[in-house]
Design brief:
mainly alpha; 11 helices; AhpD-like
Length: about 190
Amino acid sequence: MRIELPDEQRADPLGHLSEHYAPEIVNAGIGFSTAVYQHSTLTTRECEAARMRTAEINGCRLCQNFRATRDLPGYLNAVGGDAWDTVADRGPAPGDEFYHQVSNWRTYDGFSERERLAIEFAEGMGLDPQGLAQNEDFWSRARSAFTDNEIVDLTYAVASWIGLGRAAHVLGLDGACTWMPEPAETADQA
């Protein structure tokens, strides 16, 4: 950990930061994150594909273990967001194989074209934003699959995951954070 964090706050380092270290900035970051999850119009699988590739690139362990359909309601409740009608409600939940194959997006046949483009976009934005901006082949494919609104939606979603995931990783919060929301009850459990 790169900052002082009391032992009793190790389960909720983000909560501690939001009260004690640059609270206006940290809380703006939390607001950015919740806005993505609450207002994105992309499907669950499209968001999770891009988010997971970003998590792999960032090296954020917490983000790599996060599953929107399982964990998002608890996360939003913990940070004061609205857990109703979120990206986790926009289509079927990805399975374990989906998450394990994200880095193999070029060859794995379990992704739709839009999911594959979302992963490619996240990878380009995370590793080579200048190359992505100039990749006319990518933009031709993306513009034929996504509306302008969806492209902007995806861009800002990936921006939030890159920035906030890297901040957590650099500060060492992803290793210290033991907070994980209670799994949402599934239809099988009900």
